[in-house]
Fold this protein.
Amino acid sequence: MTAAPADQLLVAFAGLPGVGKSTLAGRVGAALRAPVLPVEPVERALARSGLVGDVPETVAYQAVAGLAEVQLGLGLSVVVDAVNPVASIRGLWHDLAERTGVPLRVIEVHCGDVAEHRRRVEARLPAEPDRFVPTWEQTLVRRAEYEPIIGPRLVVDTAVDVDPLPAILSYLS
């Protein structure tokens, strides 16, 4: 392991679908001039190849971790955009940070207004059913399965009418 540049970071977003993770991850990636690596497109690619269920979801996270490791090895910061629903999945980012010597910053995003969260989830629904765009009912199931994050993190509530980007960038610096 070589010493990471002083300003290099591994930023892992976590939170339920529809809370605003991808929007914030994109904004943070742009501000840091860092690649944003979303898990969902990898899950879609695996599904197109006929791989479905829990194992491909885990494989998608591992694939993104592998891509993140390459980018970190190039000296870049990386932003991971994913639900990160359980501790075992989140452990990938802790292991990667330790292995590469790059600080990990976790940002947990939620929407504290249930009606607004539901509106956002339902506004995303495509005309045809898509297992990667969950319904409100599926989001509630995921919420019940979501394991609490233990450890340092920044919690962002996107229902609050304040731009969270300055606070996120302050947390990252």
DSSP finds seven helices and five strands in the chain. The chain has a mean pLDDT of 91.
